[in-house]
Design a protein that fits this description.
By secondary structure, this protein is α/β, with parallel strands linked by helices. The protein has 3 domains: 202 residues, ANL, N-terminal domain (Rossmann fold); 154 residues, 3-Layer(aba) Sandwich (Rossmann fold), CATH 3.40.50; 100 residues, 2-Layer Sandwich (GMP Synthetase, Chain A, domain 3). It contains 16 helices and 29 strands. The strands form 6 sheets. Strands 1, 2, 14, 15, 16, 17, 18, 19, 20, 21, 23 and 24 form a 12-stranded mixed beta sheet that branches. A 5-stranded parallel beta sheet has the order 6-5-7-8-9. The chain has a 4-stranded mixed beta sheet with strand order 4-3-13-12, with helices on both faces. Helix 2 packs across helix 3. The longest helix has 17 residues. It is globular, with a radius of gyration of 24 Å. It starts with 12 loop residues before the first strand and ends with a helix.
């Protein structure tokens, strides 16, 4: 609880407990303890008509159709297949109009949704299945081979396509069959409370082994309230383009749950493809475009061709998450696409995608910021070595506490204890500072700092500088082992088309702008920088590549 006498209204920092409090208006949570997130969403009033549109086929799902389908699928899961509260259901599928139907149906029963990346290998998927022990899986025919090692797992097929022949798959139904089912009046309805588990999403594992993040119905309800409140979506009907993956917290937050609570329409693309995304904006007169930083950078770099070929006049704002945008990128976008705002957000799977955001163009012009704390969220900046809690404008690890913070890691007490303390504080692993106006700035990942002769070098700082080079399209900086220095900064660079910039030119460019210990001492040129679905650089992949060539 904030101590108003000792809390600075400008920064939100309370001197009596060294805690930063959100400056945004608190969001009330429903008092009814026995409430699942599906019921919470479906009971919200709005004036929306169409819930989802399949961009490829043009198929539309009205809100009435959506809730009828959710009820039918939930009824089939319960009555036909015995799914009960606490059972885990796996979704292995690209984005589709069926994704939110399955999620909402599963959670309405008190069962648990676990998702996985369709690009994962059969081995990676088998590991997640072994860990989460799903009772049933939903997938598309094309992805069945990835479940070949799980022959006893009952499968419901999504969409069309010919299933793989052979008896090794236990196919029990199709989603269309389930949707045609008349909801049963006698199906088992178990009491679901807000503290019950709703989702089991596996974190990207950029700094270690992938772990199952356990989120409650309360976590998701708080997230929905934050999303709806942030965009003031109840004030008018909006159309969102969905290209970010629904299996990821970003997609789940924005599309499978959050936006339908406001009556907004979501246009779903099965995967990201720049031309298809731009065609969809034009065809469906989209107003909002959630994306990750690399897509926004591409829109800036190819703006002339984009504007010549597509009509994007309906677009009001792009929403960027995954990493803060630089001043050059924001100003470049504003110049190329006047009238289209840029809003940013910061969140983790462990915080149900909620943490901080910029909610206006004015806030986004605070360059390099991840935004201000989300409503009802608290933060601390903690010195990693000593554990000392720090004040305004001091850099340390960002800790978060609020209604959207996870319950813990699935069946992993050790990882939970090292990430979530007894008071509910989540150690984010991000080095940050909060300025005198309450804006959060992410300096780097705590575990990704390069240790050069005892000095700490933040890769993100060097990456931001590299992206200002006129001949560089993208870049990533990693620690490279060195017997004298311990580690040296190494850059992986994507040249712009037609560029012949050299290793020495890249190093000289950085040398002129940083302290000697921060200089880049090794450069490799690549076609692309590997990133996870939210746009974060997969440094571990690049480190492995670099070390393999020693």
């Amino acid at each position: 609880m904030a101590d108003s006498l000792n809390t600075d209204p400008r920064s939100g920092f309370c001197t009596s407990n060294s805690t930063f409090y959100s400056k945004r208006k608190p969001i009330p949570l429903p008092a009814n303890h026995f409430l699942d997130v599906t019921t919470f969403i479906s009971s919200r009033s709005h004036h929306g008509d169409v819930a989802f549109i399949d961009a490829a086929t043009g198929r539309r799902l009205s809100f009435a159709d959506l809730w009828r389908a959710v009820d039918a699928v939930a009824s089939s899961l319960s009555s036909d297949f015995g799914i009960r509260k606490g059972h885990v259901i796996l979704l292995l599928t690209p984005n589709s109009i069926y994704f939110p139907i399955v999620c909402l149906a599963v959670m309405s029963l008190g069962a648990v949704v676990t998702t996985t990346n369709p690009l994962n290998t059969a081995r990676e998927i088998a590991k997640q299945i072994s860990d989460s022990k799903p009772s049933l899986a939903f997938t598309i025919p094309q992805l069945l081979p990835k479940l070949a090692d799980c022959s006893n797992l009952p499968i419901v097929l999504l969409g069309s396509g010919n299933p793989i022949s052979g008896a090794k798959f236990k196919i029990i139904s199709t989603i269309e069959e389930m949707m045609r089912r008349e909801p049963s009046q006698i199906r088992v309805r178990e009491r679901v409370d807000q503290d019950d588990t709703a989702t089991l999403l596996y974190s990207s594992g950029t700094t270690g082994a992938s772990k199952g993040v356990v989120s409650s119905h309360k976590n998701l309800i708080a997230m929905v309230q934050t999303v709806v409140n942030r965009f003031k979506l109840e004030e008018g009907k909006e159309i969102f383009i969905c290209t970010v993956p629904m299996f990821h917290i970003y997609g789940l937050v924005a599309f499978a749950t959050g936006l339908i609570a406001s009556g907004s329409t979501v246009v779903i693309l099965s995967k990201f493809e720049m031309d298809e995304m731009l065609i969809a904006i034009q065809k469906f007169s989209a107003t909002y475009l959630p994306l990750v930083p690399p897509i926004l950078v591409a829109l800036v770099n190819h703006a002339d061709g984009v504007k010549r070929k597509y009509d994007l006049s309906s677009l009001r704002a792009v929403l960027s998450g995954g990493a803060p945008l630089s001043k050059e990128v924001i100003e470049g976008f504003a110049e190329k696409y006047p009238g289209v705002g840029v809003l940013q957000g910061y969140g983790l799977t462990e915080s149900t995608g909620i943490g901080a955001s910029t909610d206006s163009e004015e806030e986004s012009r605070r360059y390099g910021t991840a935004g201000m704390l989300s409503p009802s969220m608290e933060a601390r900046i903690v010195e990693p070595e000593s554990g000392k809690v720090l004040p305004v404008n001091c850099t340390g690890e960002l800790w978060l506490r609020g209604p959207s913070i996870m319950k813990g890691y699935f069946s992993n007490e050790e990882a939970t204890a090292s990430t979530l303390d007894s008071q509910g504080w989540l150690r984010t692993g991000d080095l940050c500072y909060i300025d005198e106006d309450g804006f959060i700035f992410v300096v780097d990942r705590l575990k990704e700092l390069i240790k050069y002769k005892g000095y700490q070098v933040p890769p993100a700082e060097l990456e931001a500088l590299l992206l200002t080079h006129p001949e560089i399209d993208d870049a990533a900086v990693i620690p490279f082992p060195d017997k004298d220095a311990g580690q040296i900064p190494m850059a992986y660079v994507v040249r712009k088309k037609g560029s012949a910039v050299t290793e020495s030119q890249v190093m000289d460019f950085i040398t002129q702008q940083v302290a000697p210990y921060k200089r880049i001492r090794r450069v490799a040129f690549v076609a692309s920088v590997p990133k996870n679905p939210s746009g974060k650089i997969l440094r571990k992949d690049l480190i492995k590549l670099a070390v393999s060539k020693i």
